[in-house]
Write a structure and sequence with these properties.
heterotrimer; A alpha/beta (about 260); B alpha/beta (about 475); C alpha/beta (about 450); A: about 260 residues; 4-stranded antiparallel sheet; 8 helices; C: about 450 residues; 10-stranded mixed sheet; about 40% strand
């Protein structure tokens, strides 16, 4: 573990919303090339954690830091975090009628890579390829963002954005919830294209299913705003051998359903 | 549905002889002032009430303001000019008490018939009643129990004699004497009404209730109600009204002021069933009322719930001034008009404090040849950061000779506010009627069921027993309004 | 209405009395008569005042009438003016400026008499029956109004557009108004008739320099005959010191369809009224509006969806934004006349309040005198949606850019109803510019 410039590290993170403390000292470190799975029962703070990482204004950080690319990003606006290469795949992506997918993606790509860096023709070509890869109809390009999309379409749109914006660290907030097996396969295919030595991934999930598609190198269990158990490849190996039942038994059946 | 399909056509033009069961007249000897209005009459009313000097002056000032004011013409109601010199401004039963302190049996009988027992042995459990007969409060029940908690619940006349400082501190601070034409008139000549004072931290254990009865001919009723809830106090207040069936119009111009200090809550419920006139529009009460609440302290709450099923003309906009931060205003209304009734009613929510929120639910039902208008104002001042309002006004038309109008005004002066207003007007749903009838329920009952469903969001805000009464009353009113 | 108390002199808007009426000798008798009738009506209608419901939020006294004098009637330009960037998109282009007007017949339709675009003076001679029937005609459904009558009596440039029965013009007519002379009142007048089963698109564009102080009083009448389709879009981009009072009327007959977009972006104070009568069975009206008041702009719009007949439909969507010290007023009425059953009418007014100090008022009204129908309205107020903003920011868009994008998204639903792409693009640019960097 490089101690000089941590790639992504959450240190003693405390956060609250509307006077209710939710995160009560979360610690978690991700290095490039690692895929971490974060599990936990409903209400344990998983979604809060992903929102706080991205800088959602509804949550107030009361203590701790989130270090990314060598700096504490908690003072940064969400857009500055995104431009640093942080990406959140939302559990519930909002619809924005009036903004087309193409317009939105181009604006976001320009923000991430700099205005004029990508030529429009090149951009559209890449977008078409990515959409084909994610088995999406090209008609989506001209539709309004997430407007009238099915749950599966919204999740694929999140992955399309990830492929377009090429983050170095992505947080997936229950991206697998509500997906059928086919959609799960496609989403996983997209995520696995990102995975590599320079990419870190945090997969927040409620289901062990997705972990068969996106193989984690590390596992964490979040209980009541704190990481109750954490382990690396050894733990993962144990899980591979013995399954998840013992985790369920140890932390309650809600940790994984 | 084709034009020739008349299966569901609702006919309202058949003779609508609808019984008004409260239309009887009581034979009570009255102590009256002559008809007409001038400074002497104002002084005479004040003298009859044995009021302090400052009150007489207050009334005279209001009278002078009234003389300079014009009656409001903006409402969508039509009536011939009122001759204010042809109205009697004071009429009170001469003998309210028999020797021995018992209430005069004729009066007691009157209220008994109205379902309001005022004799101690018949008291309604859970409700304290102030019964007002024309210009005078007859009796107030449950007084001792209330007094133990420091709650003052008495007629306005008594309050002026026994608690003049409290009255003086609050009277006219929400509805100033010159607020509008009818409020000025009321301030000059008001005869009685109720005064409620709930001291700091006290939760009033029973519903407080006033029952207004107009009996005498050619007499106006001008009652004044003042409710003050101190810090953290709670009170639920119920108002009911009836009048005899007479063929000329009678004027009812009341003023109600509610004051909620920090953390206080006032819930004010009305079922208004004044005589509405006959099918030709002959007779009935002109119900010109100014009702306003002031959320003066932070975290206070004022809720108005009204079920308006009577009166020839209703002109009434129970409002809330949301001054305290985080204060809440609510207005729930059912207004039913039939025959030639006219209603122009709604509310005003004025957001001044931060994080104030208001909810408006208005259900208008028009039948016969009536006109039913919702008129509302939601005003969000620049200081009202994060103010919220949600308004929903639905109108239902039963028959093709009535009208339904909606006139909301919304003024937003801060970018932090979120305001949503929605309104619909439609005929009673044929699909619903058909569905209910297909289960063997006759058209009249089916209509009643559907109308009740339409009004459900308002009825559920009424105190439970009152809610049952209101539903029954609306059912009764709906009878014969269906073909 | 009481008129007895109003003396004739008291009823004049400054600058508009008998002496300022266009000289009779210069115009056909038919127009003289129409102007005279309008003038009589103008005198009769009392002056609007801030006490009137309609003018309560835009005091008539805020229009400095006394600083303006009526512009002289316009004559044809001797030379074609410089072409505008959009001219080639249209069959006919009418350019109107202080120097005069010009009618450009791009597709030879006028020469072939397939479409009529001519001045009211010419029309009164060539098509007297149509002028007699339609000018100040049945579209005027409610009581006479001060500024409609004023426009009828005093207009200084009148245009007549007529699409004969069963003719179809999807490219249609562009009318460009470009006024630069301070101190004058311009009074454009338009009468457009789309006859049975015909189809026509009309676009109007108003502009003046930022520094020009002028007043426009416009009156327009649109008729869509049986089965006709009329598309109209007007883009008002007046400079910051131009005042505008506009009263527009439309009428859709059986099976007709009116699509009407009003885009209010410029001007200092604008007081506009749009009335559409869906007067016969199966007539449809789609009324759309976009307004954006920033700096010290004041925009007041009144709409009337009149359902004077059964089985008629109307759908209204007005979206506005206010910013800085801008103030917008929307007053809308759905009026269903007695007997107007099977009516489906909808009215929606959405308001964005983008900064403190700005103000938006909405008065969405329903006046329903028939029973078997469905009418609804809604109004919303608020700033941009916080979760949408977060979503955009989480994708790297800086806050101001994200906000601007959301403002664009807010308006897109109305923009999509504009018939021409170049005008849609122009409006997007205007909105972007008005958002500014500080949003």
């Amino acid at each position: 573990m490089s101690e000089k410039t941590p790639f992504f590290e959450i240190r003693n993170l405390h956060a609250k919303t509307e006077d209710k403390a939710i995160l009560k000292g979360v610690n978690l470190t991700i290095l490039p090339g690692e895929t971490h799975a974060l599990m936990g029962p409903n209400g344990s703070g998983k979604s809060t954690l992903s929102n706080v990482i991205m800088g959602h204004p509804a949550y107030e950080v009361t203590d701790g830091e989130v270090i990314f690319q060598g700096q504490n990003i908690l003072e940064l606006d969400p857009d500055a975090r995104a431009r640093l290469g942080l990406f959140l795949a939302f559990q519930y992506p909002v619809a924005i009628p009036g903004i087309s997918v193409a317009k939105f993606l181009k604006s976001a790509a320009d923000a991430r890579f700099g205005q004029g860096t990508i030529k429009p023709a090149q951009f559209i070509k890449q977008l078409r390829e990515d959409m084909k890869f994610l088995e999406m109809s090209e008609a989506f390009i001209n539709r309004f963002l997430n407007d009238g999309f099915s749950g599966g379409e919204k999740k694929r749109m999140e992955i399309l954005q990830m492929l377009t914006l090429k983050p170095v660290l992505a947080v997936m907030d229950e991206t697998d919830s509500g997906l059928d097996i086919d959609a799960l396969r496609i989403v996983s295919k997209g995520v696995n294209r990102m995975v590599g030595p320079n990419f870190g991934l945090l997969v927040i999930t409620h289901y062990e299913r997705i972990l068969r598609y996106i193989a984690p190198s590390h596992l964490h269990v979040l209980i009541d705003g704190q990481v109750a158990m954490s382990g690396g490849p050894d733990l993962v190996k144990e899980v591979e051998k013995n399954g998840y039942d013992w985790i369920r038994e140890k932390f309650g059946k809600e940790v994984l359903v | 549905m084709s034009d020739t399909d008349t299966t569901f056509k609702l006919e309202t033009d058949s003779a609508l002889v609808q019984e008004y069961k409260y239309g009887f007249v009581s034979d009570v000897e009255a102590d009256e002032l002559p008809k007409g209005l001038n400074e002497d009459i104002v002084r005479a009313i004040s003298a009859k009430k044995k009021e302090p000097e400052w009150m007489t002056e207050w009334r005279l000032k209001a009278f002078r303001r009234w003389q300079k004011k014009e009656y409001p013409r903006w409402a969508k109601v039509q009536y011939p000019p009122i001759d204010y010199q042809d109205i009697r401004y004071y009429s009170a039963p001469k003998n309210t008490l028999k020797s021995g302190g018992e209430v005069d049996p004729e009066l007691a009988k009157t209220f008994e018939k109205l379902g309001i027992p005022i004799e101690e042995r018949n008291h309604l459990a859970g409700v304290a009643v102030d019964a007002v007969f024309d210009s005078m409060s007859i009796a107030t029940t449950h007084r001792e129990m209330l007094a133990e908690k420091g709650i003052i619940f008495c007629s306005m006349s008594e309050a002026l004699q026994h608690h003049p400082d409290l009255v003086r501190k609050y009277l006219g601070t929400v509805v100033p004497p010159g607020d509008n034409f009818y409020a000025a008139l009321n301030s000059a000549v008001f005869s009685d009404g109720s005064f409620c004072f709930i001291p700091k931290g006290v939760r009033c254990p029973v519903e407080l209730s006033t029952y207004f009865r107009i009996n005498a001919r050619d007499t106006g009723q001008f009652e004044r109600t003042l409710i003050v809830a101190e810090e953290g106090a709670y009170v639920s207040y119920i108002e009911g009204c009836t009048a005899p069936q007479r063929d000329n119009n009678q004027l009812h111009a009341a003023v109600v002021e509610l004051i909620a200090l920090e953390g206080a809550q006032i819930k004010y419920s009305t079922v208004q069933n004044w005589y509405a006139g006959d099918e030709n529009g002959q007779g009935g009460i002109y119900n010109f009322v100014t009702k306003r609440g002031h959320c003066r302290g932070a975290n206070s709450k004022i809720s108005w719930t009204q079920v308006e099923v009577g009166a020839a003309i209703t002109w009434k906009y129970p409002s809330v001034i949301l001054e305290g931060d985080n204060s809440v205003g609510e207005f729930y209304s059912v207004a039913f008009t039939n025959k030639k009734m006219q209603a122009d009613t709604g509310t005003k929510m004025v957001h001044i404090g931060k994080n104030t929120s208001s909810t408006i639910i208005s259900k208008g039902i028009s039948a016969g040849e009536s006109a039913n208008s919702y008129r509302g104002l939601v005003r969000v001042l620049p200081s009202a950061l994060n103010a919220r309002n949600h308004t929903c006004c639905d109108s239902m038309l039963i028959g093709d000779t009535c009208s339904a109008n909606t006139y909301p005004v919304i003024e937003a002066e801060t970018s932090t506010a979120i305001i949503e207003h929605e309104a619909t007007t439609s005929k009673i749903s044929e699909e619903q009627l058909f569905y209910v009838q297909s289960r063997g329920i006759d058209e009249e009952s089916a209509t009643s069921l559907i109308v009740n469903g339409f009004c459900k969001d308002v009825f559920k805000e009424l105190p439970l027993e009152f809610s049952v009464e209101a539903i029954k009353l609306l059912e009764l009113k709906l009878e014969h309004s269906v073909g | 209405m009481t008129t007895a108390q109003v003396s004739a002199e008291g009823a004049y808007i400054p600058g508009f009395d008998e002496s300022s009426l266009p000289a009779n000798g210069n115009q056909p008798a038919l127009l003289q008569a129409k102007r005279a009738a309008a003038f009589a009506q103008y005198c009769e209608v009392p002056l609007p005042s801030a006490r009137d419901d309609e003018w309560r939020r835009t005091d008539p006294a805020s229009f400095p009438f006394e600083r303006f004098s009526p512009a002289a009637p316009l004559s044809p330009l001797t030379e074609a003016p410089a072409p505008g960037p959009w001219d080639s998109e249209f069959d006919v282009v009418v350019s109107v400026s202080d120097a005069g007007f010009h009618i450009q017949d791009n597709a030879g339709l006028l020469a072939d008499k397939k479409l009529v675009v001519e001045t009211l003076a010419d029309a009164a001679v060539r098509h007297p029956d149509l002028i007699e029937r339609y000018l100040q005609g049945p579209v005027r459904v409610k009581q006479p109004r001060k500024f409609s009558s004023l426009g009828d009596a005093f207009w200084n440039f009148g245009l007549f557009i007529y699409a004969p029965a069963r003719s179809v013009f999807t490219r249609g007519v562009l009318i460009r108004y470009h006024h630069t002379v301070s101190g004058q009142t311009v009074l454009p007048r338009l009468l457009a008739v789309v006859d049975e089963q015909a189809e026509l698109t009309i676009a109007e564009y108003y502009e003046s320099p930022e520094t020009a102080e002028l007043l426009a009083i416009s009156t327009r009448e649109f008729y869509a005959g049986r089965g006709a389709v009329l598309r109209a879009a007007s883009l008002q981009e007046w400079g910051a010191r131009t005042f505008h009072i506009g009263e527009d009327w439309a009428r859709a007959e059986r099976d007709a369809r009116v699509e009407w977009v009003t885009l209010l972006l410029g001007g200092q104070i604008s007081k506009m009224m749009v009335s559409c009568d869906v007067c016969e069975s199966n007539a449809n009206a789609y009324l759309s509006g976009l307004f954006f008041a920033n700096d010290n702009q004041h925009v007041d719009q009144r709409t009337l969806q009149l359902h004077s007949s059964a089985n008629t439909y109307s759908n209204l969507l007005y979206k506005g934004a206010v910013k800085d010290r801008g103030h917008s007023v929307y007053q809308g009425i759905i009026d269903a006349s007695p007997g107007a059953i099977k009516v489906d009418a909808y009215q929606m007014n959405n308001n964005l309040i983008l900064s403190e100090g700005a103000r938006a008022d909405s008065l969405p009204g329903l006046e329903i005198d028939a029973d078997d129908l469905k009418c609804s309205h809604g109004a919303t107020f608020g700033n941009l949606d916080a979760s949408q903003l977060f979503y955009l920011q989480s994708r790297g868009l800086p806050k101001s850019e994200a906000r601007q994008l959301l403002v664009m998204a807010f308006f897109e639903e109305v923009i999509a109803r504009i018939p021409h792409e170049f005008m849609r693009e122009r409006v997007r640019e205007d909105v972007r510019r008005k958002c500014g960097a500080s949003i």
